[in-house]
Amino acid sequence: MDMHPGLAPDTVTVLWCTTDGDERRKAHTLLVRTAADMLDVPLSELWLTHREDGRPVLGGAGEALRVSVTHARGALAVALTGGSPVGVDVEVVRRLRAEAMARAWLAPVEAAWVAGLPEEDRSAAFLWLWTQKESVGKALGRGLRRGGMSRRVPLPEPWPPVEGAPPVLRPLPGDPETSSAAAAVGGGRLVVGVARHGGTGSGPRPGAVHLRVHQVSPVAYS
Prior knowledge:
Elements: E1 11-18, H1 23-39, E2 46-50, E3 56-60, E4 66-72, E5 75-81, E6 86-92, H2 98-105, H3 108-115, H4 119-140, E7 170-172, E8 175-185, E9 190-197, E10 210-215
Parallel strand pairs: 1-10
Antiparallel strand pairs: 1-5, 2-3, 4-5, 6-9, 7-8, 8-9
Helix pairs in contact: 2-3, 2-4
């Protein structure tokens, strides 16, 4: 069969939706059904398990895929690729003590960037960085342990980001083998962060890995 674009080693596919509850189960359902569609196999030929470190993995026909799952209150997202380890995170944009949280947890240059924005932008900006850091931790297989919050991620260019503009995976400062991006979705009500570690397309060239972020209907995966 022809290779689905989402299976290519230089493509990461991210699907997200809002939901009214049971986010974890629905995220797992979305992941398995999407993988089966990509591989053009029956649902019975693949299944979802977890490694000892908690990372989700697909068994059976899906074992060649690298996947990640995330859910928040009222939202969920999944990421799939035929390449190297991937991570995804979703957060609902809400009012935070963003400047204080940035000073406490982020790298100094990131905290200064958040503090330099208009107050009404700071919560979304903090989550823009937070979701990427969570995603990087998932892609690396160690979460936010060992300095995950202070690990720098690319700052957005420009700010505020334009919703609907194609997000681009960019190398982490000081780590060209790992790249990340974030996207404002749902009318700016959500931020989705994505990361990828190593493999084809890694290195200093932004855009070497194609990132596809799409909304799906929650009805189809309930």
